[in-house]
Structures are given as C-alpha cells and as structure tokens.
Hints:
Elements: H1 2-9, E1 47-53, E2 58-67, E3 72-77, E4 80-84, E5 89-98, E6 101-108, E7 123-127, E8 131-145, E9 152-166, E10 169-172, H2 177-183, H3 188-197, H4 205-215
Antiparallel strand pairs: 1-2, 1-5, 2-3, 3-4, 5-6, 6-7, 7-8, 8-9, 9-10
Amino acid sequence: xxxxxxxxLALAVSIPLSVSFSPPQPDAIRPALSYNIGSPFxxxxxxxxxxxxQRGRKMLNVQARVNLYKREVQIIASGIxxxxxxxxxxxVVFSDTxxxxxxxxxxxxxxxxxxxxxxEHFYVVLADGKCQVLKLIDKKGTEKRNAASNEIFTDYEDxxxxxxxxxxxxxxxxxxxxxxLEELSDKQADLSAYIENNKLRMVNxxxxxxxxxxxxxx
Length: 218
C-alpha cells in the first residue's frame, strides 16, 4: 500500500519519489454510513481538479473532492484512491455545470488564523486578487443514534460566513457600503461610481464580489 501511495504522489508535478503519506483509513473514500444527514464534503461528487500542494507542487487533472469537516482531500488517480491529509493541499480548482452554466470553484487554505479557524481550513474564493472575498462553509458533525435501529449516524450542519482578505489581514466581511469603501479607500471614487452605475447592493454577496473583482483591475 505504501509503495502505491508513493507512486501516486509522484504523479504530482516536481514531487520527488521519496515523498509519501499515510494510507487512508478503512472506508475513508466510500463512507460506511449511507444514512448520514447532510455531507462532510463541499460536493459529494468527484470532479477533475487541479491541486496546489505544499511548497508549490501540483497535481493536475485528478478526480478529487474536498472533505470540509476533516479538512482533507480525497483523490482518484489512475484508478488509485487516496486521502491527502489536512494541511497538505493549499488549493483545489475545478469546474461544474449548474443549470447549463459552467461555474469554476476555487477552494483555498493557508490563510491566517482567525475567528477560531486555522490555516488548514478551506475557504471558497468568490473574488480573487490583491483583495479577496471568501466564503467559509463550516461543517459541524454530531453523532446521533437511530431510536428504531439503534444505529449511529452523523448529522452534518453547514454554517456559512463571509470574510475579507486584504494586505495579508483576514477579517469578517460586513455587507455594508461604508465598510467596503473604507477598506478600499485608495479607489473610493472609482468604486462609488461603479456601484452607482451598476446599481449594486452591498447586502448582496454576489454584488460585493463583483465590486472587489473590479477593484482588483484598477
């Protein structure tokens, strides 16, 4: 098993063959309990993804899914299944089609510790560049027992929150025009005009992401 996993990691760009990691636990890829409520994953399905690992190494076009609860990444490459442990993967990028629209998702770890979260937590990047808008999906898992069958299952609850990353500082995002204009005060006039011309509402997270994306082009 260890030899297979070492070979698998060698698929990553510029990763030496000596690199290895611990094999997954039984049922780590295919959950034993199919009656969980909710899911620990960002998406239940695997998607062909590009992975950025520690020290700039990469794994390209591998099937992957992100376990937000354990903060690890499950992959399938050349028919081999494995788990990349928490802290090993810095970024996962994949595309998915929703209602005939192709969406590109970027999940990134490595941000400063803040609000009880560590650098191993993955954030969904909504606006990228020198200034970033981030979405955190915090998975809370609670074990419960089925009264009828006496079987134990896990109830996963999603808690979503939004963050603002600028000049190396991570902070809670306030959905307020004054907050954003103060944070991006070097282009305040341009941003005020952009908000007015495009009728953006700063309580709408998609509008905020559009504004920050525009700021990153200035």
